[in-house]
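Researcher: Good morning. I'm working through a list of sequences from a screen, and I'd like to move beyond sequence-only analysis. For each chain I'm collecting a predicted structure so we can compare shapes side by side. This is the next one on the list. No need for commentary yet; just the structure.
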Amino acid sequence: MTTEFRHGVFVSEVNDGARPTPSVSTAVVGGVFTSSDADATLFPLNTPVLVTDVISAAGKAGDQGTLARSLEAIGAQTKPYTVVVRVAEGVSAAETTSNIVGGTVNGKYTGLKALLTAEARLGIRPRILGVPGLDTQAVTTELAGIAQQLGAFAYANANGCATKEEVTAYRAGFSQRELMLMWPDFLAWDTTANADQVIPAVACALGLRAKIDQEVGWHKTLSNVALNGVTGISKDVYFDMQNAATDANYLNELDVTTLVRRDGFRFWGNRTCSDDPLFQFESTVRTAQVLKTLMADGVAWAVDKGIHPSLAKDIVEYINGQGRQLVRDGYLIGFNCWVDPAANSASQLSAGKLVLDYDFTDVPPLENLNLRQRKTDRYLADFAALLAAA
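Model: Good morning. Structure tokens for this chain:
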């Protein structure tokens, strides 16, 4: 309270009410594409561009390269915000790969690294990443690193692999939890060729992931959701849901998502490339990513305020409130935030450091449903009663 002399009515603000929850836009696609004949004004090279209508933008994406077909595949699933980075095709596949991996030219990021500037330039952060049709091993390695920096999730094909054995050997080259590998590709009707053509499964995954985020939530995996605009699969994949000795199960067991036909065409698989079993599921990784952003953004108001017990209590109550809401909405199984006295010594607090802990239980996918069938004659025990009832 001020000690200065006052005569009259003065109003001071006490801002200790509940603060609104910041939103996390997870259904934002980001990718790198090629097209030598795209509208250069709309899609300048090595510059992140925000596309709000992927179907309309596909009409200005040209006929060459991967841009138009990828936008169409994304748009067949939904119409998400999409951050497009167009790169030049090289005179060789290796040069194209280098253009996609990118670097720094005169202080400007190029290729995949240009996605890092999307939030600063466009005010929106891509959370679903891919390089459809061009995801070589070098590109996928860079893509996974970019996903880590953005708190995003990346999808990539087992590029160049002709058999399931080659695919699983290819999978062994990755360990990032932010990455899902898939194989093979889809087929879709091409109105220019008047025939089915291969379409990168990654392009379909980008659109479907955004659709699931919009309609269900980030806690649901990509697996076993029907796709639009797909007419076939580019390689034979033996699939039988009741038989473990199949191509699909072999690939899933070794952390590769595959494609199946079952009441339409679907992705089949939940696993990431994580070397930590705690983050083996796509949904676990995305839950952890969303929580980090949601909680950090939600308590930004407290930074630089005085460290007082009431401030710590307010922060804990806020975080627990958000966690409880996520549990009620079905995004989490459980959540709790607390202050650990052992982590908050007097020296730590006097240095302006406050440590809060929170834990959560994500919603795991039902990957293995075991139905136990038994043959019995006990329902014949009272046959006379059954006959009377009939």
